Amino acid sequence: MFHKFLKVSDACPHCGEALHHHRADDFPAYLVIAIVGHILVPIILSVETHIAPPVGVSMALWPSIALAMALGLLQPVKGAVVAIQWFGGLHGFDSAKKARQAAAAAVGASGA
């Protein structure tokens, strides 16, 4: 789906589905921030409360973990946002959804 780290290909390399009209914008980054925050904040609070590592360790450890988590989640979350748009027929994917529904109706009609 991607031809660069966060650049969605114009079309799917496997099926040829047009992907150029997606509108993921900043929503994947917002979701990643929310996910990383909900996972990392309780861990940080627990470690800082119970272990109380030196400040230097905390200043090196937590931003590094947050950055690694954010970079690791950004591409899958963006892919999921584009997939949700495709499945829902949003932002230019309406013709693809209509084609899927017509194909499903044709298969249903021929099988009945």
Task: Provide the descriptors you would attach to this structure in a database record.
single chain; 112 residues; mainly alpha; 0% strand; elongated
Description:
This protein has one domain. Helix content is 68%, strand content 0%. It contains three helices and no strands. Helix 1 runs antiparallel to helix 2. The protein is elongated.
Summarize the structure.
68% of the residues lie in helices and 0% in strands.
The coarse overall form would be elongated
N- to C-terminal separation? 36 Å
Strand content: under 5%
> What's the helix count?
3
Can you give the helix content as a percent range?
Answer: 55-70%
How many separate domains? 1
Question: In terms of per-residue confidence, which ranges show pLDDT below 50 for 5 or more consecutive residues?
Answer: none
Number of strands: 0
Structural class of the helices, strands and pairings? mainly alpha
The helix/strand order is HHH
* Mean pLDDT rating: 90
Radius of gyration from the CA trace? Answer: 21 Å
**Largest sheet report:** none
